[in-house]
Design brief:
By secondary structure, this protein is mostly helical. Helices cover 53% and strands 9% of the residues. The chain contains 13 helices and nine strands. The protein has helices at 2-24, 29-50, 81-93, 96-109, 121-135, 139-153, 183-193, 196-212, 249-266, 269-283, 310-323, 329-346, 381-396, and strands at residues 58-63, 68-72, 156-157, 162-163, 174-176, 223-226, 233-237, 366-369, 374-378. Strands 5-6-7 form a three-stranded antiparallel β-sheet, with no helix packed on it. Strands 1-2 form a two-stranded antiparallel sheet. Strand 6 (223-226) and strand 7 (233-237) form a beta hairpin. The longest helix is centred in the first third of the chain and has 23 residues, at 2-24.
């Protein structure tokens, strides 16, 4: 009888703990309602953008002072975000106008499956065709993605242990923190094909980056330049941040998202621990504003008057929502609280555009490449993409 009572008591405690965990991680009704309204507006806003983009181009940004929409060809690194966002919004709304437009834009990207001159095929192809698989379980889409993974793999150098980022001088073998995001295509390719070579390249790149890009406080350099013959590190630099020693905001968000994703794809606890330590650096940073929308660089010289970067915030929110699934409830709740704060503040009129304005983009106030005076304080397609992704991930919490 005593043993039975103990077992019943243990079972009761376990059920109570599970219930407490579920209650702790419940999404907030006010945020759910806000997101529902945001996404409905986003559907209408992207129909505005659809009407502005030339049939053979992809949107990049919009300059409100001149009313100019800047576009790119399919070979530019951001080309996958527009069709990707359309597919995301289609998954919410089931509005066929969005799905059909996304499919039309995929045709522009198809040739990029053979592009061996860029490390960004994950952004370009997985964010577009990968999301397209939600629209149609297409063998053709899968083959295009596998070819994209094969092309990306050609940029891996086993001596360096990384995928090369840029082919331009004066760099020798540069690897940027952004490249962590392109590994998801390789993990998908192993899962789809059974070819473990993609997996081995991805984890080797993740390990080398973890070893060489990160400082003791778990901030990241932007660029590590290697000798391609010996694999020796030549320099640790920045291209888009304030200084070589600074923490460029979007780069920190890429790293957080990247290692969270690598943990999901490998279940290796070292990557979860890396993601948690990056999150700690960001969330305890004295230069992270109270509204959690980062300055463009955590070490920008003119804080608190430095420009904010909505894209860094959106990426961080999406990553934190995913990371919350892999940690203990109290830690998870902390991550969700920050993600909620970011979503709420990006939904304010200071950041979220009124339908019909902002050239059809959702968010204002992102920073692309401030040192080069490029895309400064403007809307950007990837800010929109990760904002929508973060909101959709938050809605998924209702099913937990």
């Amino acid at each position: 009888m005593y043993r039975l009572l103990c077992l019943l008591s243990f079972a009761g405690l376990a059920l109570n703990a599970a219930a407490q965990k579920k209650d702790l991680l419940q999404p907030k009704p006010t945020v759910l309602r806000l997101i529902d309204g945001n996404l409905r507006q986003a559907v209408n806003q992207y129909k505005v953008l659809m009407g502005k983009v030339p049939a053979d181009r992809m949107p990049k940004t919009f300059y409100a002072n001149t009313g100019r929409l800047e576009t790119s060809d399919a070979g530019w690194w951001t080309s996958g975000f527009y069709p990707g966002t359309l597919f995301e919004l289609y998954s919410f709304s089931h509005d066929t106008a969005l799905g059909n437009e996304a499919q039309r834009r995929l045709a522009l990207l198809e040739k990029e499956q053979y592009n061996k001159g860029t490390h960004d095929l994950g952004f370009m192809m997985y964010c577009s065709y990968g999301n397209g698989l939600r629209f149609a379980d297409s063998p053709r889409y899968k083959e295009i993605l596998l070819n994209s993974a094969r092309s990306l793999s050609t940029r891996f150098h086993p001596t360096v242990g990384c995928i090369k980022s840029w082919d331009s001088k004066p760099w020798h073998y540069p690897v940027i923190i952004d490249n962590m995001m392109n590994l998801e295509l390789l993990f998908w390719a192993t899962h789809e094909s059974g070819d473990s070579s993609f997996y081995k390249i991805a984890v080797t790149h993740a390990n080398t980056t973890m070893r060489n890009h990160y400082r003791p406080d778990y901030s990241s350099f932007h660029v590590v330049d290697y000798d391609s013959v010996t694999g020796v590190i030549l320099a640790k630099k920045t291209a888009q941040g304030f200084a070589d020693s600074s923490a460029w905001a979007r780069g920190q968000s890429w790293g957080l998202y990247g290692y969270t994703m690598v943990y999901r794809c490998t279940h290796d606890p070292q990557y979860l621990e890396q993601a948690r330590k990056i999150a700690h650096f960001l969330l305890s940073n004295p230069n992270l504003p109270a509204d959690k929308i980062p300055y463009w660089d955590y070490n920008a010289p003119n804080i608190p008057n430095a420009l904010r970067d909505a894209s860094a915030a959106a990426i961080m929110a999406s990553a934190l929502i995913e990371l919350s699934h892999y940690v203990q409830p109290a830690e998870a709740r902390g991550y969700l609280d920050v993600a909620e704060t970011i979503i709420v503040n990006l939904s304010d009129n200071n950041y979220k555009a009124v339908v019909g304005s902002n050239g059809g983009f959702l968010l204002k106030h992102s920073v692309g490449h401030l040192p080069a005076h490029s895309e400064v304080d403007v809307p950007l397609t990837y800010a929109d993409y990760y904002f929508v992704e973060a909101m959709l991930r938050y809605l998924e919490l209702r099913k937990k």
